[in-house]
Amino acid sequence: MSEDPEFTVLVTSVGERRIEVYQVARAAVRWSLWESSRRFAQPPVNLPGEVPFREAARTVAALRAAGATAGLRCGWCARAVDPEVPVDPGPCREQRSFYGRPCPASG
What we know:
By secondary structure, this protein is α+β, with helices and mostly antiparallel strands. The protein has one domain (7-106): CATH 3.30.1390.10. It has three helices and four strands. The protein has helices at 18-29, 33-39, 53-65, and strands spanning 7-13, 45-46, 69-74, 80-81. Strands 2-1-3-4 form a four-stranded antiparallel beta sheet, covered by helices on one side.
């Protein structure tokens, strides 16, 4: 088990530039444009797989640049995290890691 949590990318709205959002999704998770349009038809959508924070933050930035509303969800505590805003250091609904440490998203 990793010492650091992994994150899921959550898309809550596609926006008006759908094709650009679909292309970002295609690059991130290898969905076809058809598969992207099918999945994004009823948001919110979690992109499959959990990835390290930096990779997830890059994907969120690309989705936002394409016009989507997107964010991250911590794989340890399930808390929504905005990669551009410092995380609230207060307690979370943490799941302790294998090493007994609390979720690092808690500050």
